[in-house]
Amino acid sequence: MAFEPVRNVITIETRGCAASSRTRWVPGSFPPGDRRWQTAPVTDPFASARHHSFASRAPFAGVPGRPVDDLGDAGVVIVGAPFDWGTSHRPGARFGPRAIRAADYLSFDGARPHLPTGIDPLQVLRVVDAGDVDVVPGYVEDSLERIAAAVEAVARAGAVPVVLGGDHTVTFPNATGVARVHGFGDVALVHFDAHADTAPDQSGRLHGHSTPMRRLIESGAVPGHRFVQIGLRGYWPEPAVVEWMRGQGMRWYFMSEIEERGLRAVVDEAVALAAEGAAGVFVSVDIDVVDPGMAPGTGTPEPGGLTSRQLLDTVRRLGRELRVVGADVVEVSPPYDGPGEITAFLANRVVLELLNGMAERAVGV
Ligand code: MN
Ligand code: MN
């Protein structure tokens, strides 16, 4: 399918603006070339927190911090994508990576032995944290390029990127970065969401949290027949878009079908579909797949979703039964969370349960 970019509907006259903003010295600020303008060295994975107030300060579960260009023998790399300028309704997901990392009552000691198995996924998978991508607030495409580059670097180093969002726009660069390494068209995508995120455009533009799956299909990074969507419900998108999805060979499971057939039967089928002929699987979890009663801290809540227990069990199962080559947990919007930061706490455990499944697969239990 040919990629038809949506034309810009507004042209803003910017001639001369860039030069003057770069070279003009405002009295009272640092002069051009002053070292205080320079960004922190990339050897500190949490450097972006020095100029982005919303960026993360400390690594997930206290695992070692490593920059993406020096990952050592890491097997899994946590990456934050504090991006929410693709939201159509409630913003706030730029605070997601920091909230997900912070939402934990255990010691930040890099150890998380799983109670049922005794396996510590952080040790087995050699998990490190590369901090947050240095995004450009307000600038969608610059930010997405930087996210794709970071994710690609992780995959190229032979590790599995696990990205903390951010709104769902970031799955376009996340899955693209993984596909650049594992093969364009060869990676399957298991997508948990109340929404299909397959709109042709968002307000006339290519990128937003309602369009990432459309972009992945159109670019060829993830073809429609390698998509499995779980948890869709509600009143969006419109029938014409659903028709387009059908034409792409996408498979989806509505909450009503999950209710009727049972989650286990649906996931049996989803695992088989995702594994068929794929080089690996990217797991994308929009936290709004869970009922807003258990995950209120999100941008576009849709009643009637999975329970948190169901999501935790399912991601663990996917980690165990599929070759996961990338993952993200997105749409956690801390300003709407609470009481007790329950959405951020759930997202933290979604990451851990997925890692647990992957660790069980790695050690062969
Ligand atoms: Mn979504
Ligand atoms: Mn959603």
Description:
The protein is of the alpha/beta class. It has a single domain (43-363), classed as Ureohydrolase domain (Arginase, Chain A). 33% of the residues lie in helices and 13% in strands. It contains eleven helices and eight strands. An eight-stranded parallel β-sheet has the order 2-1-3-8-7-4-5-6, with helices on both faces. β7, α10 and β8 form a beta-alpha-beta unit. The longest helix has 22 residues, at 342-363. The model is unreliable at 7-11 and 18-27 (pLDDT under 50). The structure holds manganese (II) ion (2 copies). One manganese (II) ion (MN) binds at residues 168, 193, 195, 197, 209, 286, 331. The site of one manganese (II) ion (MN) has 7 residues, from loops.
The molecules bound to the chains, other than polymers, are: manganese (II) ion
The profile of the biggest β sheet is: 8 strands, parallel
Helix tally equals: 11
Based on Cα principal axes, name the global outline. globular
Q: How many structural domains?
A: 1
Number of β-strand runs = 8
Task: Assign the CATH superfamily.
Answer: Ureohydrolase domain
The CATH architecture classification is 3-Layer(aba) Sandwich
Strand content: 5-15%
Q: Separation of termini? A: 42 Å
Which regions have little confidence, pLDDT < 50, spanning 5+ residues? Answer: 7-11, 18-27
CATH structural class: Alpha Beta
- The gyration radius over C-alpha positions equals 20 Å
Mean of pLDDT: 92
Question: Helix amount, in percent?
Answer: 25-40%
